[in-house]
Specification:
- By secondary structure, the protein is α/β, with parallel strands linked by helices.
- The protein is 19% helix and 26% strand.
- The protein is built from 5 helices and 15 strands.
- Strand 12 and strand 13 form a beta hairpin.
Amino acid sequence: MIVSNASRLHITPAIFYPFPGLIAAESTRHGGVSPVPFASLNLGINTTDGPSNVNENRRRFFETIEASTNQFASSHQVHGTDVLHATEAGRFDGYDALITDKPGLLIGVTVADCVPILIYDHEHKAVAAIHAGWRGTVGGIVTKTLDRMKQQFGTSAEHCYAYVGTCIDECSFEVGPEVAEQFESELKRVDAETGKGYIDLKRANTKQLTAFGIPFAQIGVSPFSTVLHNTDFFSYRAEQGQTGRMLAVIGLKS
């Protein structure tokens, strides 16, 4: 469990420790200025939190990772599978994954239960940030992003390191039969007593990474859950939609 204190604004995935030229982080909910129900490091632009709060929170977050908001590219996410090759900072629309090989440019995705996936191709110095809810997972957004990296940068699996970030856990992600039927049997569980279905999004997206050929030893998976560790992370489901958003970002230092 994370120690809840104002200094812990983000987590650096251990899988990326060997790469000093890389910035990679996912935020927590600590250390911001937003009031309840967005307490406190709400980084989500599309919330009803005050814009001045979100701007200050973003300034604090980027400062802790030694970056700034004016070198950040993101998108209004639509739970789709489109991938943006980002070449400049800015706020785009309609993409749930971004890729870049431009030094000094950070890319990232906003989450509050969905899975953030960060990828680093250390051979070609290229990165990806992916937002995968159940729709994006079923649509193969991780596979499509890696295919786009291969096309754009020459990325190959053996040179990739990946992080499957903090999201809703399998024991909390109850879904209806119309959703459960879209997942392979190994990725879902039906409670024998209640008949309710549960989906493992971390495992589903990890499977797409390994299917591309990334060695399992080069994949890190967050041990945290937005629901079980709700005091440290925002959860849209646990907080019934009235909550903040986290960022997962990655990029090459200038």
